[in-house]
Amino acid sequence: MRITVHPSSREAASSAAEELVAQADGGGLHVLGVATGSTPQPLYRELAKHRTPGLADLTLFALDEYVGLPEGHPQSYRSVVERDVGEPLGISPSRIHLPDPVAPGAYDAAIAAHGGIDVQILGIGQNGHIGFNEPGSGFDSLTRVTPLDESTRAANARFFDSIEDVPTHAVTQGIATILSARRIVVLAFGRAKADAVAAAISGPRTEQMPASALQDHPNVSWVIDEDAASLLPPALRSNLGRAIELGASL
User: Fold this and answer.
1) Counting CB atoms within 10 angstroms of each CB, which of 107, 139, 158, 187 has the fewest?
2) Which of these, 92, 68, 73, 67, lies nearest to 82 by C-alpha position?
3) Quick one: DSSP state of residue 135?
4) pLDDT at site 249
């Protein structure tokens, strides 16, 4: 596990973007797993400043999609990924994939058919969810349709006219699907994420904290700002801007 604490979300996103651009242009990044929501937006804006051939050649697999939104809805994750990632980076819509609630299991097969995900971008919910794997999700779960926790719907209501418009279900990569990526980059910004970050990194590995499953992965990078790091042990918080390598036993 690698942790880097930055003074701000912009600086954190810039650092992560530079690594991804170097990997893509160097031929080591072909398939990118993309998260939605507000957390990864600074990263996507930083990537768009580069727009290199390596980025344009990427194949994208989204983490999740709402169930029940009409095609073309501006808050559907297909619309979000195409608008915020695909178009700015020059990636063809034909290279952008999202899970289908009608046949969720086919998504894992599609990822495997593309050689697996090289880098998976994640955010973390205030309740510790990754993707839409809410507390209680099995660490062995694959892509599936799942109900959304009311706290998640409330957090996402800012993207809709009202909470009543927020879907109650989503189709999401499972935790085992996420862990199959060769590398995972977790972004977390703001004091509201501090409890979940601390629990995921240094708390017990438990299905009630879905992000704690990341403790099992051999190549996870946490890229966070000072506020999100505020509840980590002091030794970690003090290493501003420097990567700290942690053993899985922490």
Assistant:
1) 158
2) 92
3) T
4) 29
